[in-house]
């Protein structure tokens, strides 16, 4: 009986063995005591936290770059789509004036050509009412058509511009840089185009002042550009 009590006492004391000093792991039966700093990975706690923060910052920066690229691409697509819509309107204006004045002695002065064009273009390209109607671009600029070889940035009226028997023009105002380049380039090297100007001064446009690609790239450098085209009648 005494032997049994000693055995029980000895086993009981083993199970109550205190944790060793110094913060090292000590074990009792079935129990593991870990250091206060948690599982070791080879890096101090502060270093591990710094790497995680760097990863977050890097991820945010990459996401911002991707978003910026997507926005830029979207804006490019929108600008190109609008430029094509303006070109379609200009084609309608040109063909309408050619057809309307095909059997007349000359292209009339004043608003006659503009009135003919307004009657043919899509209604969503028209702004205003009555005699104040103008043809507009998606950016809010105007598209005017008139007789002669000197484009006017305002609606033809009265004796400005003068009548012409072999010339008429189309001028587009308020174009962003990319749209200016797209629209102007569409009229390069056309046999029925007398001259093209993108600098906005609009003296009489003739073959001598006809812009080329280099001129277009130089002149279409802001987001408020004007393109003028003079057509052979």
Plain-language structure description:
- The protein has 233 residues and is an alpha+beta fold.
- The chain has one domain: TcpA-like pilin, CATH 3.30.1690.10.
- Helix content is 40%, strand content 16%.
- The protein contains five helices and eight strands.
- The strands form two sheets. The protein has a six-stranded antiparallel β-sheet with strand order 3-4-5-6-8-7. It has a two-stranded antiparallel ribbon with strand order 1-2.
- Strand 3 and strand 4 form a beta hairpin.
- Helix 2 packs across helix 4.
- The longest helix is centred in the N-terminal third of the chain and has 56 residues.
- The termini are far apart.
- About 6% of the residues have low confidence.
Q: Number of helical runs?
A: 5
| Helix-strand makeup class | alpha+beta
**CATH domain class name:** Alpha Beta
- Determine the mean pLDDT: 79
| Beta strand % | 15-25%
Outline the biggest β-sheet: 6 strands, antiparallel
Fraction of helical residues: 25-40%
Task: Record keyword descriptors for this entry.
single chain; alpha+beta; TcpA-like pilin; six-stranded antiparallel sheet; two-stranded antiparallel sheet; 5 helices; 40% helix; elongated
Give a topology summary.
Layout: H1 2-15, E1 27-28, E2 31-32, H2 45-100, H3 112-118, E3 126-127, E4 134-136, E5 142-147, E6 167-175, H4 177-185, E7 193-197, H5 213-219, E8 225-232
Antiparallel strand pairs: 1-2, 3-4, 4-5, 5-6, 6-8, 7-8
Helix pairs in contact: 2-3, 2-4
Summarize the structure.
This protein has helices at residues 2-15, 45-100, 112-118, 177-185, 213-219; strands spanning 27-28, 31-32, 126-127, 134-136, 142-147, 167-175, 193-197, 225-232.
